[in-house]
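step=encode ok
step=design start
structure_in=
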C-alpha cells in the first residue's frame, strides 16, 4: 500500500480534517463523487445517468450504526428507493452495507432488515447487493448472504481482490450461481490478510474474474483500470460470452467518466455506483485514497476556493 493512501486513510480519523471537509467538502468537489445528501438529489442523478445509457447502483452512505432505530430507518429508506425505481421506471438497484442495517448490533437484526430490502426488491422485479466491508466482517457477511439466498434469488454479494481469502470464498459460493461484484478493496488492511502490492491485487482480481466468468452466475466487473477493462474485453471475446446478460462493468460516480462512456458506446452494460446521504465523509476519503487523480481534483478545488 502506498504511503499516500495510508496517509489519506489515516486522515479520515482526524477530527480536524473531518470538521473541515464536513463544512466545505461539497463546495470543494465532493459532489463529484456523491450525488448529494437527499433522495431527491440521488433520483435526479439516477435519471441523468439513465439518459446517458448507464444503469445505477444506489447506496445510502452510512455504516457501523449503533442504534436499532437507525437500522430500521435505513432499511425503510432502501425499500422506498426500490419502490421509487419501479414507479419512475428507472434502471437502478441498490447496494447496502450490513453494518448499516444492524450487523454490529445483532446479526439477526441485520438479517431481518436485509430480508425486508430483498423482499421489496423482489416485489418490484429488482435485485439488491450486499456490500463487503473490512476483513473482520467477511465471515459474517458471507454467512448472512448464504441465509438470504435460501429465501431470495435476487441477492448478490461482493468480493475484494486484495484479500488473500477471496478466491476460496468465491469457490465456496459458486454452487449458488452467485451474482457477485468484484472489487479491489478500499479499506486499510494489514499485510497479514491482504496483498500489499498493486501487482498482486491486480493479478488476484483477474484470477477471480476468470473463475467467476467460467462458471454460472452473473459477474459485475467493478474497476476503473483500463488494463483490466482491456483484459476483460479480450477474455469475453475468447470465451464467446454475450456482451449483456452474463456480466456488466461497474464504475463509481464521478470516476473515469470517459472510459465508462466508451464502454456504453461499444454496447456493454455499465452501472454507475451513485451514493448519497449525510454520512459521506468516510466514503469521500476512501475515494481520494484510491487514485491520486481524485485527490488532485479535490485539492484543486480546495486551493482555488474563493
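sequence_out=
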Amino acid at each position: 500500500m502506498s504511503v499516500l493512501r495510508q496517509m489519506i486513510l489515516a486522515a479520515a480519523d482526524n477530527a480536524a480534517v473531518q470538521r473541515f471537509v464536513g463544512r466545505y467538502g461539497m463546495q470543494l468537489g465532493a459532489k463529484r463523487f456523491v450525488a448529494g445528501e437527499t433522495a431527491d438529489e440521488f433520483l435526479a442523478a439516477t435519471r441523468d445517468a439513465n439518459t446517458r445509457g448507464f444503469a445505477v447502483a444506489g447506496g445510502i452512505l452510512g455504516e457501523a450504526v449503533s442504534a436499532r432505530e437507525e437500522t430500521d430507518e435505513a432499511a425503510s429508506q432502501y425499500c422506498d428507493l426500490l419502490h421509487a425505481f419501479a414507479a419512475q421506471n428507472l434502471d437502478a438497484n441498490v447496494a447496502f452495507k450490513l453494518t448499516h442495517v444492524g450487523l454490529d448490533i445483532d446479526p439477526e437484526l441485520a438479517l431481518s432488515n436485509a430480508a425486508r430490502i430483498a423482499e421489496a426488491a423482489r416485489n418490484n422485479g429488482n435485485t439488491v447487493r450486499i456490500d463487503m466491508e473490512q476483513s473482520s466482517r467477511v465471515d459474517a457477511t458471507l454467512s448472512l448472504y448464504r441465509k438470504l439466498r435460501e429465501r431470495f434469488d435476487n441477492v448478490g454479494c461482493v468480493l475484494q481482490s486484495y484479500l488473500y481469502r477471496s478466491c476460496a470464498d468465491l469457490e465456496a459460493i459458486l454452487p449458488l450461481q452467485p451474482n457477485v461484484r468484484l472489487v479491489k478493496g478500499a479499506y486499510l488492511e494489514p499485510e497479514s490478510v491482504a496483498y500489499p502490492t498493486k501487482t498482486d491485487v491486480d493479478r488476484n482480481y483477474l484470477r477471480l474474474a476468470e473463475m467467476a466468468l467460467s462458471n454460472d452466475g452473473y459477474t459485475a466487473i467493478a474497476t476503473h483500470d483500463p488494463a483490466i477493462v482491456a483484459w476483460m474485453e479480450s477474455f469475453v471475446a475468447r470465451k464467446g460470452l454475450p456482451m449483456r446478460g452474463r456480466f456488466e462493468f461497474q464504475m463509481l460516480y464521478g470516476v473515469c467518466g470517459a472510459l465508462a462512456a466508451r464502454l456504453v458506446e461499444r454496447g456493454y452494460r455499465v452501472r454507475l455506483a451513485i451514493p448519497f446521504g449525510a454520512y459521506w465523509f468516510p466514503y469521500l476519503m476512501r475515494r481520494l485514497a484510491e487514485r491520486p487523480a481524485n485527490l488532485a481534483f479535490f485539492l484543486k478545488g480546495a486551493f482555488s476556493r474563493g
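step=design ok
step=annotate ok -> The beta strands are 55-60, 92-96, 128-130, 155-160, 179-183, 218-222, 247-252, 270-276.
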